[in-house]
Specification:
This protein has 330 residues and is mainly beta. It contains five helices and 22 strands. The protein has four domains: 90 residues, Roll (Phage tail proteins - horseshoe like beta roll fold), CATH 2.30.300; 83 residues, Phage tail protein beta-alpha-beta fold; 78 residues, Beta Barrel (Elongation Factor Tu (Ef-tu), domain 3); 47 residues, no CATH class.
Length: 330
């Protein structure tokens, strides 16, 4: 199971005994992982001990096997008349989402740009995936997260890799999204509680025609003919922008079939957004002995009963949180 610790006015305290439920979650678009905690908080019985949590309090989540799995700062607190205190804490990626800056990088790799951004805000750097791709990036009044991800987005078109930011304690890491295949298989005979499989082509774009700034067709097309063969032509257009790479920008518009699984299973703290798992769900062919990518996760502990479950959002395609910007390949 897990334990919850807080640092209130300099003192580290185990507050697990006050907790009713703990939810630990992450999402590809949410980025900063967070915990939502509900604690018992006696209002009327002065003999019952309480614990104090307020915005700015640092909290930890510690697994009895894996050790520390979350460290963050409380941003939201509420106290209700049902004698419950609830708080939400985010890991330190929240500061990259809430802080903005302006940079004009020239002939620099995304990993080097990330180091410069971290230096400005005083955040330590952990593992940064090495791309070896030089880019030039002009980012004006953008969030620090968007600046970093713009750089890695354009590098991904050269490396064919997907990238994801993740905190480890107080250190920022950029990992290759989906590369870490967890030794865990979703199986209804072992750990799967329920699942929903969905697929659709509602957002599919399989052909992009490129036009110049006078709205004249340039003769250039970015397309996926295999998708067209099965689903017909679903077309979009792109107008050339001298500040952007035309082929890259047009390619970003291509979208394939969306395949998604929402699953509830027995919890495993290693299964989080940015990783991948195996599925062995016999009643859906694409889920038999397949690899799926975690794009969202919510882990829930009910402290009183020791019940631990997780809800997962899985995708068949491994796609990063792409960010557009004024970037030119070098």
């Amino acid at each position: 199971m897990i334990k919850v610790y807080s640092n209130y006015f300099g003192g580290s305290t185990d507050i697990t005994r006050f907790c009713k439920t703990v939810k630990w979650s992450g999402d590809k678009s949410q980025v900063a992982r967070k915990i939502d905690v509900t604690l018992a908080y006696s209002i009327f019985d002065k003999n019952q001990p309480n614990t104090q949590i307020s915005p700015g309090t640092m909290v930890w989540l510690v697994d009895d096997v894996e050790g520390e799995i979350f460290r963050g700062i409380v941003f939201v607190r509420s106290l209700n008349s049902d004698q419950e205190l609830q708080f939400t804490a985010y890991d330190f990626l929240i500061y990259f989402l809430k802080s903005k800056a302006t940079y004009n990088f020239t002939n620099i790799t995304p990993e080097a740009a990330t180091i410069k951004v971290c230096e400005e805000v005083g955040v330590s750097v952990g593992h940064l995936e090495q791309t070896g791709v030089n880019i030039s990036l002009l980012a004006s009044n953008k969030t620090l997260y968007d600046i970093i991800m713009q750089a890695y987005t354009y590098a991904s078109f050269s490396t064919s890799k997907q990238y994801f930011l993740l905190m480890s304690g107080i250190s920022l890491n950029c990992i290759e999204k989906g590369k870490n295949l967890i030794d865990f298989t979703l199986d209804p005979n072992v750990n799967l509680i329920n699942s929903i499989y969905d697929d659709n082509i509602e957002q599919m774009i399989n052909k992009v025609k490129i036009y110049n700034d006078k709205k004249a067709f340039t003769g250039q097309v970015v397309e996926n003919t295999e998708w067209q063969k099965y689903y017909g032509i679903l077309q979009d257009t792109y107008t050339v922008n001298k500040d952007k790479n035309t082929q890259i920008e047009a390619s970003i518009l291509l979208k394939g079939m969306e395949q998604e699984v929402t699953a509830t299973a027995i919890g495993n703290v290693k299964v989080i957004t940015g990783t991948a798992v195996k599925t062995n769900i016999f009643y859906v062919s694409v889920l038999q002995n397949a690899t799926w990518f975690i794009d969202g996760d919510t882990h829930t502990w009910e402290i009183g009963t020791n019940k631990y479950t997780m809800q997962l959002n899985l995708k068949s395609q491994n796609i990063m949180d792409m960010k557009e910007g004024k970037v030119d390949g070098e």
